[in-house]
């Protein structure tokens, strides 16, 4: 009877939670402006925390080899931010130049695109009306998708430029987080209620075990694939090689679908040159996919995620439907955290049931 009553309490709690969420969403006009301001302030700390999380294992390795912590932090900090600064210093002007050139040539690309559309419509004019309507709908959908993607990219770039001073403090925040890691860890430990400390430590340890090496390895693979693709596009004289390589590298973080998404802009640009160039781009993307899937990812990332491919594909479909490209990028990490959360919740509820049965 006590166990049944406990399940009633849990169902009541879930119902109350849904009501609170409904009211919370209805009050969105009140809390959304406050949330945006808070995110602007908190975002540099979140990015710095992520960078510190990536670099911390390397700092710990050097520190365990009898190197003072401050010196280990200084070495890794200098190497990481130094290489990032050099890449940004040399890469940003080139990317801006290629973006400007792409913008200036956009009308000619648009005219060629219209010629393709007209040719497709002429060739399908004798097809049944249902097929023509389906093709027209698909064309409109692709146009809308490309327009939204370009608008988001421009807005993101302008937002980063406008927040340059805010992001300039990230290296300093990351340095102090790495330097005072143990102090921050102790502070979090003391402000956490005692009954949550052990469970929270185990939860964070399992999340790090499941997700940490995957994120670090996947980022390294993306940097390598983006660099190789940019050099390959430059070698075959494809226009905007740095910009297209950057797109390929970023989208490569998406399992399965990433290479296809990253290849679309390169194929579109190649189509404005020649059929031969399209063939070269397709061959490069296929070789990069083979390199990433059979050499780089197994060697660098391994099977650290411990998730079935069907689960990953479900997460990607759900993430893409909810959040677009950003949802695709965040889908797998969120699913990994959700998996660990469900396992811990199952253990917690099983323990409660066992304790009740003993009583």
Automatic annotation (TrEMBL):
Keywords: Membrane, Transmembrane, Transmembrane helix. It comes from the Bacteria. It is a multi-pass membrane protein. The chain crosses the membrane at residues 7-25, 31-55, 67-89, 156-178, 219-236, 242-261, 268-291, 311-338. Its main location: membrane. It is found in: Membrane. Belongs to the autoinducer-2 exporter (AI-2E) (TC 2.A.86) family. This is AI-2E family transporter. It comes from Robertmurraya beringensis.
